Amino acid sequence: MLTYTANKECRPNKRPILIVHPGINVFPPSGYGGGERFAYGLAKLLAKNGFNVMTLDFGVQESITIRDGIRLVRLRRRFYMRNLKGLVSYMNAIFSMCNLLLYLSKKRSSFENPVLYFHGGLEYAIVRRCIKLLIPGINPAYVFRLQSPRWMNPNLLKFWEKILAIPTELFAVTSADLVLFESEAVRSSLRKFWKEPKNSIVIPNAVDTEFFDREKYKSKMVSSGILYAAMIKPQKDQLTVVRAMAKVIRERPDAKLMLVGDAQDQHYYKEVRREVVSLGLSGCVDFVPSTSIENLNRIRSKFPIHLVYSSYTGFDVAVGETMAFGVACIFSRIPTLDGIAKDGINCLLVEPKNDEALAQAILKLLNNGNLIEVLGKNARKSAMELLSWDAFSEILVNEFSQFDRKT
After folding, report:
1. Are 182 and 315 in contact (CB under 8 A)?
2. Average of per-residue pLDDT values in the chain
3. May I ask the CATH architecture of the domain 214-387?
4. 17-206+388-405 and 214-387 share one CATH topology?
């Protein structure tokens, strides 16, 4: 039986904060997905500042552990549909929320006024309404994290996503008591065709700058190595990267590209592999499956040049992580990076879907070791100043403290 007790070190009268995110308790603080890492970082920051924080995950067996002042709770998943994609993923999310409802109904005396944090859409907003209706005495506040909204990338969506996912995101935004936008560009895009949320702040994908620190690793550099770590799917645009490499090796035949990531889209993955073969790049392009973030950091430490070259407009979590790692970065020139990524100072920026410009940026770095070093140092400095959790501590603590005054 799982129980919840207030942390003795926490300040009194703090509403308990439940951070609900699939996978958050698998391997904190470094789960493979960016959403998990952000959610755990938020939990860690709030616990450090005296809030009663619990993270909720779903698995085969119930368990509870304590780490970093956070109670990490895994609820037993009572319903689940395996190996199904698309619309069924929404069903699994709803099943998980049903587990949450059952749990809160049993623990209502400990959770009279919880603050619920979700990194998702409609199903979470509906669950909040269900909690109010079905569990007397529980009046939750609802915090929603919006990252890479689908309405900013309509050309990348399937038909069902356009008719279902976009409206659910908009509903979740307008239902939340507090919205955490990943960038001002995302908040501005919402204003153009939808009403403003009741309360919102901009919090980019903050980074654990101690964990993502190249100085922790003493790896030998791969000469002329280029790394791109991302799930293999159209949004990450590995095809353009491969085509750029075909141009790079004409001038620098010693260049090596490593693509780290699982094939989220099998059709696209096969297309990328065929392109590698057709361009004669089999000897200089390696495919490596997804690995733990610790192993990924070891790989990162061996490569002087890192790519985050997405064709969509989201603030990729890998942007902050590569900058914190202190390596030379090449990013897509997208609005969400304004104010963070500065071309020629802490990175190189290249227009999306432009293999010629990307090839020239890679060659610029391969032919200038001093520039690699300067960009890496400046990237680390920018991450420490602009993207560390400490940079957002005051605003997040103030915003979450307001919920106590609204009890």
Report:
1. yes
2. 80
3. 3-Layer(aba) Sandwich (3.40)
4. yes
Contacts of 224 (CB under 8 A, 6+ apart): 252, 254, 255, 256, 366
Write out the two tokens for 42: 């938020």
Question: Using alpha carbons only, what angle is made at residue 360 by residues 359 and 363, rounded to the nearest 5 degrees?
Answer: 85
- 25-29, 334-338, 350-354 — most confident range: 350-354
Higher pLDDT, 302 or 101: 302
Q: How do beta strands 285-288 and 256-260 pair? A: parallel
Tell me the residue length of the chain. 407
Domain boundaries, the chain: 17-206+388-405, 214-387
Tell me how crowded residue 2 is: count the other CB atoms within 10 A of its CB. Answer: 15
263 CB contacts (<8 Å, ≥6 apart)?
Answer: 231, 232, 233, 269
Helix (H, G, I), strand (E, B) or coil at 160: helix
Interval 141-168 mean pLDDT: 67
Q: Give the global pTM.
A: 0.82
Classify the C-alpha dihedral 225-231-236-241 as positive or negative: positive
∠ at Cα 354 (353, 360), nearest 5°? Answer: 145
Instruction: Tell me which residue of 366, 231, 226 sits closest to 284, measured CA to CA.
Output: 226
* DSSP annotation of 162: I
Q: What is the pLDDT of residue 160?
A: 59
Of residues 97 and 391, the one with the higher pLDDT is 391
pLDDT tens, position by position, 110-146: 666 778 887 765 555 666 667 766 676 677 788 888 7
Is 50 exceeded by the pLDDT of residue 168? yes
Q: What is the percentage of the chain residues whose pLDDT exceeds 90?
A: 35
Run of H or E including 95: helix 87-106
Q: H or E stretch including 58?
A: strand 53-59
pLDDT top residue among 221 and 77? 221
Instruction: Report strand pairing: 63-67 vs 70-76.
Output: antiparallel
Name the token pair of 285: 């392009």
pLDDT digits (tens, 9 = 90+) for 179-194: 888 888 888 777 776 7
By DSSP bridging, strand 285-288 and strand 305-308 are unpaired
Q: Is 352 helix (H, G, I), strand (E, B) or coil?
A: coil
CATH: 3.40.50.2000, 3.40.30.10, 3.30.420.130, 3.30.1360.20. Which one for 17-206+388-405? 3.40.50.2000
Among residues 354, 347, 353, the alpha carbon closest in space to that of 328 is found at 347
